[in-house]
Design brief:
Length: 419
């Protein structure tokens, strides 16, 4: 085993203790240790939700969202007068699923620094607070640059397996029962790693976590749009060779300036392989991109899709066909694709099927409970709308009917607990 891969295994152990260099309080900072074996859910003695993890609750897993003056999206979050979210505090988390979540954007800063130090990357010399200052984006392109650096940090099999395990632990902490996680093995293939081994590393991390009672995570194979249809075909080739049961879907992300029409055959092939399909569209690109995604690629879901509000005919079709839009509110503000009121309000008013997720939770310093709170704050979503969004996230999942039925029952149980 390479030394960099051995070093990448430091961090949270199977029993929630820290085995890396230094004391947990020094290495972890604001990142509490999550107990892998703590699978209990429900309320503490004082009525606050503790989830399956640290008893101090969901707000300790990530630092509080901070305003950044140079960022127009975050300036909007700061200057708007949002609806208060106090009615959501101390209650069981509403969301039980996440469908729009990238593994490469989920690694906590503390873990990124630990792995970077072992690899000799410059981030290894930073303190968590210093790294968080770098996780600020004046544009969508700046965000893509940071994502690339995070992939450099993760470019060993042990680091990827660790990231998968830690993500499941964090999701369990936030009350998430089921997640579909985008993973991009071909990114690492371009840096000399093996596709199958990379994918199996993700699978091992999730499998170990699930065996320990943490969140059930499945995989959405992700290709990079600006690398073209040829790269996407290679991703599907890799799936055909591995046929991992945990892989349930195929998606496409990246720069939205690249025409979607070139991926028609790719999406037809993905459907033929029995995979659910998603495409990132209408985030920084126009409503016409969403039109191509739903009509040309015939995607099952659209990641983001917020620009559909700019074309009534596109929005009407999404509503009529009940095509789910996997929204990520904090992401849209952090990457400056939204300023002012978030489009979720107009989408809800139009009758669109929307789900809520975190996209890149560590890079955007968010969690699923926070996304539901922000739907209330920045989209004026009512309680009944929030619970419908939770059920949408179950219905839209690429999961078997019996699992969906179980998740619906859990969501209703939480709703009754709140009433």
């Amino acid at each position: 085993m390479k030394s960099e891969e051995r070093s990448a295994t430091t961090g949270l152990t199977h029993n929630g203790t820290w085995k890396g260099r230094g004391h947990p309080e020094g290495v972890n900072g604001t990142q509490p240790v999550v107990s892998a074996h703590s699978a209990t859910t429900g309320s503490t003695h004082n009525g606050t939700w503790k989830g399956r993890g640290h008893p101090e609750g969901v707000n300790r897993i990530q630092p509080v969202l901070s305003a950044q003056r140079h960022h127009r999206g975050e300036r909007a979050m700061r200057t708007m007068k949002p609806r208060s979210d106090t009615r959501l505090r101390g209650r069981p988390p509403i969301g039980v699923t996440e469908l729009h979540l990238h593994l490469e954007g989920s690694l906590a800063p503390e873990s990124a620094i630990e792995i970077a130090a072992a690899r000799g990357h410059e981030w290894g010399s930073l303190r968590p607070r210093e790294l968080r200052k770098r996780l600020r984006y004046a544009s969508f392109d700046e965000f893509l640059t940071v994502i690339r650096e995070m992939c450099v940090i993760l470019s060993s099999y042990d680091a990827i397996e660790r990231a998968a395990w830690e993500l499941s632990a964090r999701l369990a902490h936030d009350g998430v029962e089921y997640a579909e996680v985008y993973a991009s093995p071909y990114i690492f293939v371009r840096w000399g790693m093996d596709f199958g081994e990379t994918l199996r590393a993700v699978d091992r991390g999730f499998e170990r976590a699930e065996a320990e009672g943490l969140t059930r995570c499945t995989i959405l194979l992700d290709s990079v749009r600006q690398w073209g249809a040829e790269a996407a075909e290679i991703v599907l080739d890799g799936f055909e060779k591995t046929r991992l049961a945990r892989v349930v879907g195929f998606g496409l992300g990246g720069e939205e300036s690249v025409p979607l029409e070139t991926f028609r055959e790719v999406y037809a092939r993905a459907r033929g392989l029995g995979l659910g399909t998603v495409v990132h569209a209408g985030e920084s690109g126009p409503a016409s991109d969403v039109r191509i995604a739903i009509d040309g690629l015939r995607t099952d879901r659209v990641a983001h899709g917020i620009r559909a509000i700019d074309d009534a005919t596109v929005l009407d079709e999404i509503v009529a066909r009940k095509i789910p839009l996997d929204l990520a509110i904090t992401s849209n503000y952090r990457t400056a694709v939204v300023s002012g009121e978030h489009p979720i309000r107009r989408l809800l008013d139009a009758g669109a099927v929307v789900t809520l997720s975190t996209d890149d939770p560590s890079l955007f310093r968010t969690s699923l409970p926070r996304e539901y709170a922000r739907a209330s704050m920045f989209g004026s979503a009512r309680d009944d709308e929030l619970w419908q969004i939770a059920h949408n996230g179950i219905d839209a999942a690429f999961a078997p009917p019996e699992l969906k039925a179980s998740l619906h029952r859990k969501a209703e149980g939480r709703r009754h607990e709140q009433s």
